[in-house]
Amino acid sequence: MTVEDFLQRPEGVRKSGQRWMARCPAHADRSPSLSVREGEDGRILLHCFAGCSVEAICEAIGCHLCDLFPDTPTPRGQGKPSRPSKIDRVALAFRFELVALDRRLRADRVLKAAKGCCIDKMADKDFDRLMNVVGRAYDDQELAEFLETVADDLRVRAYKKTVAFDAA
Predict the structure, then answer these.
(1) Domain boundary among 45, 72, 99
(2) I want to staple 10 with a disulfide (CB 3.0 to 4.6 A). Which of 22, 35, 143, 159 is the partner?
(3) Where residue 131 falls among pLDDT bands split at 50, 70, 90?
(4) Domain total for the chain?
């Protein structure tokens, strides 16, 4: 919103040097007590000499606080930040399944190798290492199951969104 657009809303607007004075819409104002001016960066600067807050003034006029700020580029010429793209749930589900498959295959290889180990002649240190590796393999299997559940949930959500979109 520009200052000119804003000045269409309050009553009793008159120019006074570098600013405009108007009757404040946030309280019963008989004489202009609202100062309006444009900042160097294009912001709309408001001040009610009766003490009304900027939020109350915006609410009384029917605008939002963010309307007082222009759409200026961010510092250092970075431009406006782009909106995040919508999540492709099916592609995300596929990624989860790939990770789950990797974990499951790794766990299966470890457990298969562990079954062939003879623990009778194994040193305690080696036995502890084997048990740690087997424990991590079981953890990988649980994680794979969880990731597959998440992938299934993502696919269901994508399907429901598609069906809801087609119905509309």
Answers:
(1) 72
(2) 22
(3) very high
(4) 2
